[in-house]
Amino acid sequence: MGFKGKALAFSRKFKLDSHHAIERFGVFFGIFAVTGAIVIAGSGAAALKAGNDALTQTALYTTKFKASKTNLDGTVDGVYTNKSDSKALVMMHFDTSAQISYSAADYRAFLLGSDTSLNSEPVSTSGIKGSFHVFGSTGYVGVLLEADESFDRQVLNLTVRATAELTTPGPEQVNSTDKLAGDETFSKYDQWRVFFNPGASGVKKIAALDAVAFDPAQAFYEVVLKEQETEARHALDQKLVEMRTNLTQIQSYTSDLETTKVDGLFLRPPTVPASISSDKVTGVSAAEARDGVSTLALQTMRVVPGGFVLNWRVGNVYDGYLEALVPAGQTYAQFFAKKRDESSDPTGQQISDMQWIISDGSSLTKDYQSSDVTMRPLMNVMNNLSQAYQNYARNKSEYQSDLTLNLLRLDVNLRDVQSNSTIRDDKEFLTTLY
What we know:
By secondary structure, the chain is an alpha+beta fold. It is about 35% helix and about 15% strand.
């Protein structure tokens, strides 16, 4: 039997017709467009980067997909390989609100090769085994392919089928899918298609694929969380820069209290809330450091309600931060619940209630009107210092609560993956056409 006969038999046996007119046009145009522009393709294929040497240099992959029956939208995060290019991980995710099965047993896949015109052809890499991974309840899923040799430079056509549909589409959605897919399998089964080239020189490599046993948590950290962790740490560092500026302003405006006078009268320094009175930001910023590494750190005696004291510069999300924060005998869920129930931060109101006493014993806010022109210099100093305190208190609260919590949430997500990931790696999962 010739290849065409084999391909036809493959399609009939698994009810997987590989000829999608709309999809084919879209991806074909994406590969060969002179500008390399992104184009919209059909049910399985979206944007593919182009160029004459795409097969050599670029790991082509579908960036977006839509499940054919449930119409759930998904994103392809990337294609990743090990150092020897004999393992390839296709990472995808749905929105966290999407109703999908979190059991890897509810998925199977079909793998074909494709030429540059997206005509189906045999897979040229031999001995490919596949497994499906659901990364906890994060919405991320992945197909891991392991070959006996390095992957050839070939566009691979991967169709993923969900055998458990947890979202019921309306009649209009199914009809729309029929038109896009162009065959009965995409209306009969909930499935999506991804094109990628794991043998390309430009493919990303991750250490998780060099391990003897695949660790979904390590892969999830490298592919998903590491970049988010970098962003979270950058936000924390930038907030420290702002807080240091606020403290410098406070120091400057406090000095102005002694030098700004009206007819010999001046403002006495107000009583500062204890929650911020002794705070300092030490170290240097990345811009100031010779090696470009920031060492800024907050030194404080008080933690804002619902906030955390975390030395986030030491360690990372993969190593875990929660062990150093959660008290013995308490789960991290209980720890976060307790933090959530803590009272609101009174510092802002305490700053608003500051007493602004003039050197003659009178009150600037009670004994004078804000429109009093004669007291305008003292009013300006008071407003400047009060605003600097408010800005610092707000930034400190964001730093210790919201921004630190953003980093800790990544730790929680990783624990979800460690505890709840599922895998399907039986021989029936992947069907490959050689």
